[in-house]
Every structure is written in structure tokens, then in C-alpha cells.
Recover the amino acids of this structure.
């Protein structure tokens, strides 16, 4: 079984009880199967959770606004209690696994009226529980590097921005080749707050990342940018969900990636607008290309709209590299490999340029070149 997550003998009673309840739910909860739409292309009903072990999570940072979760769990009961016990998302077996067996994590707390600047955090795989708590009129830029590990990786990051806060999160996942990863990103966005995600999905034999945005106050906004690349026998599963429940919120989701060899990917994107959310503006775009005949990409966008006074749309495409473009470039003296590399870089350019941080743009483009070109 996954390593015990009793992080200290002094763990407070409420946290130990939350962990115990989650473990009970994890053991009794049936693993998702391909009969469920959300797992149709990533069936894990035969997944050997009992046989998998996890690396001991290692968290590295240098900022007065960050602490290790295990170091502050006792003194931050009021702040952390609700988060460690559950969320607005419907839990599944992987939620319960993380709640029960997390060994470490980080807590970012930015007080009211403070600009925390750029905070860089390294996460060496493992099972982690992370939280970013923003005060009123506060701002921060968080950079997560998730890498290494063995066996099982589960990285849960929640952002709470109740009012007039702005946070941009960069989360680059490049775990070891044999790792199975199940990671979730969730944001609770209040009045006039903005939470922006920039997610890179690169490593792991099996990688599933889910991004949920809950819009809870008027003026709430989010930009979500997701980049992926898969090679060899990698299987990648990426989901983004936007839940609009109050008036006058906005959302923009852009996803783009490429696959080669026998890699496969499924992307699910959902925008849900409740009756109580007039004035919503929400957009979803996802595009994938396959480099070779054995790569497989599936795109499943979904709009659930219960209010007519909104703006909502999506675009999606999957396909092989355009052969006419290849022939045109080759006719200008480039080799087939050079032509394909130019097309792939051009395909990624719009989404890479949409990432605000120059350093992260460079890092992601470098990883794409290393894996695909």
C-alpha cells in the first residue's frame, strides 16, 4: 500500500480524524472504470493501488509567505480544516487517496494588501496537499516545479481568493518516466478576484491532471493555459472545468499539445453556467496534433448552459501534421525532420506566447523540443 501518511505523532485530532475518514472512503470507494464517461479513455478499474508505493515528498522554497503543511497544520486549524476535509468538487477515489495519504505539502498565505511577488516551489513527487490563501487586495505569482518520484504521484493544489485578489500559478509537471500521476488543481474565486493557471503536462507513464475553477463572486475571472506533449507509450488525461454560479464572471481556457510514437491523450473541457449566472462570458479552445500514425488524441468539449443571457463558445481540433505544409517547406530546401520541427514549433507558439512568464515560456518550449523534436 501507499506509504503511511501520519506525518507526526503530534498531528492534531481533527486532522487525524479527517485522514481516517478519507482512508475509510478510499478503501470502500470503487475505482473509476471505463463505463464512467469521465474515465472512458483512462480506465483504472484494474489499477494496483495496493502494490504501488510513493516517494517521500520533498518541498523546497525560499519565501516568508510559504510554510510546509506538516509544520503549520496544528496552528492553522481554522484555515486548513475545511480544505483537508473536502471541497465543492464531487470526490472520487483519487481525492480520498490524497486526503488520506498525503505526506507533505506547502501553505502560501498572503495577507491583505500585500504583493508577495514571485514564489518558487519545488515538489519532488510524492503525495502532497497544497494551499494558496490570498487576502483581500493581495497578489502573488506562484511557480510549482513537480518532478522526479517513483510509483505514485498525487499533487493537489487549491487556491482560495475570496475578494479583490490576483494570483497566477505556473505548474510544470515533469515526473519520472515510470510514475503514475493523479493531480488536481482547484480555485475558488471570489468577488473581483482573478486566478490564472499555466499548466505544463510532460512526464509520467500515466498522467492525469484536472483543473477546476469555481466562480463564487461577481467580477471573478480566470485564464487557464494548458500545454502537453507525449511520447513513447505515455497516456495523458487532462480536464478543465469552469463552474459559473453567480452573475458577471469570465473565463478563458486554451489547451494545446502534440503526441508522437504510441502516445495517447484525452482532453475533457466543460463549462457549466447555472441559471443564477447571467452576464457570464466563458470560452474554451483545445487543439492537438499527432506526429505519426500510432499516436491517438481525443477531444471532448462540453457546454452546459442554463441561462440565455451569457456568451459561451468553444473550438476544438485534432489531426495529423498538414502534409501540404510539409511539402511546401520541403520544396524550399528543408528536410522532412526540419519541416516537421518548424510546423510543431509554430503550432505551439500561440499558447506558449500566452504564458506571462518569459522563464516559464522558455522552460516549456525547451521541454517540448527535447521530447518531440
Amino acid at each position: 500500500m501507499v506509504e503511511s501518511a501520519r506525518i507526526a505523532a503530534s498531528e492534531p485530532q481533527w486532522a487525524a480524524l479527517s485522514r481516517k475518514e478519507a482512508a475509510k472512503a478510499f478503501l470502500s470507494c470503487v475505482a473509476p472504470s471505463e463505463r464512467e464517461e469521465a474515465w472512458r479513455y483512462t480506465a483504472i478499474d484494474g489499477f494496483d493501488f495496493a502494490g504501488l508505493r510513493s516517494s517521500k515528498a520533498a518541498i523546497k522554497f525560499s519565501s516568508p509567505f510559504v510554510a510546509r503543511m506538516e509544520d503549520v497544520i496544528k496552528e492553522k486549524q481554522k484555515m486548513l480544516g475545511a480544505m483537508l476535509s473536502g471541497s465543492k468538487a464531487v470526490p472520487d477515489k483519487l481525492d480520498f487517496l490524497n486526503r488520506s495519504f498525503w505526506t507533505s505539502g506547502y501553505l502560501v498565505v498572503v495577507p491583505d494588501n500585500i504583493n508577495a511577488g514571485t514564489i518558487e516551489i519545488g515538489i519532488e513527487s510524492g503525495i502532497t496537499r497544497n494551499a494558496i490563501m490570498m487576502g483581500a487586495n493581495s497578489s502573488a505569482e506562484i511557480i510549482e516545479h513537480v518532478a522526479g518520484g517513483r510509483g505514485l504521484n498525487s499533487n493537489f493544489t487549491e487556491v482560495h481568493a475570496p475578494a479583490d485578489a490576483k494570483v497566477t500559478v505556473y505548474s510544470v509537471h515533469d515526473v519520472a518516466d515510470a510514475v503514475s500521476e493523479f493531480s488536481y488543481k482547484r480555485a475558488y474565486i471570489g468577488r473581483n478576484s482573478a486566478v490564472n493557471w499555466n499548466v505544463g503536462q510532460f512526464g509520467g507513464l500515466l498522467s492525469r491532471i484536472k483543473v477546476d475553477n469555481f466562480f463564487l463572486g461577481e467580477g471573478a475571472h480566470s485564464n487557464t493555459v494548458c500545454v502537453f506533449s507525449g511520447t513513447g507509450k505515455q497516456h495523458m488525461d487532462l480536464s478543465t472545468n469552469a463552474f459559473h454560479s453567480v452573475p458577471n464572471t469570465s473565463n478563458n481556457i486554451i489547451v494545446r499539445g502534440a503526441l508522437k510514437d504510441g502516445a495517447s491523450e484525452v482532453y475533457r473541457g466543460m463549462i457549466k453556467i447555472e441559471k443564477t449566472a447571467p452576464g457570464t462570458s466563458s470560452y474554451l479552445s483545445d487543439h492537438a496534433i499527432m506526429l505519426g500514425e500510432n499516436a491517438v488524441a481525443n477531444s471532448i468539449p462540453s457546454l452546459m448552459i442554463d441561462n440565455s443571457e451569457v456568451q459561451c463558445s468553444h473550438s476544438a481540433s485534432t489531426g495529423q501534421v498538414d502534409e501540404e505544409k510539409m511539402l511546401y517547406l520541403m520544396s524550399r530546401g528543408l528536410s522532412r525532420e526540419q519541416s516537421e520541427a518548424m510546423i510543431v514549433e509554430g503550432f505551439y507558439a500561440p499558447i506558449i506566447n500566452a504564458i506571462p512568464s518569459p522563464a516559464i515560456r522558455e522552460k516549456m518550449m525547451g521541454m517540448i523540443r527535447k521530447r518531440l523534436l
About this structure: The chain has a mean pLDDT of 92. The first helix runs from residue 13 to 28. The chain has one domain: 13-321.
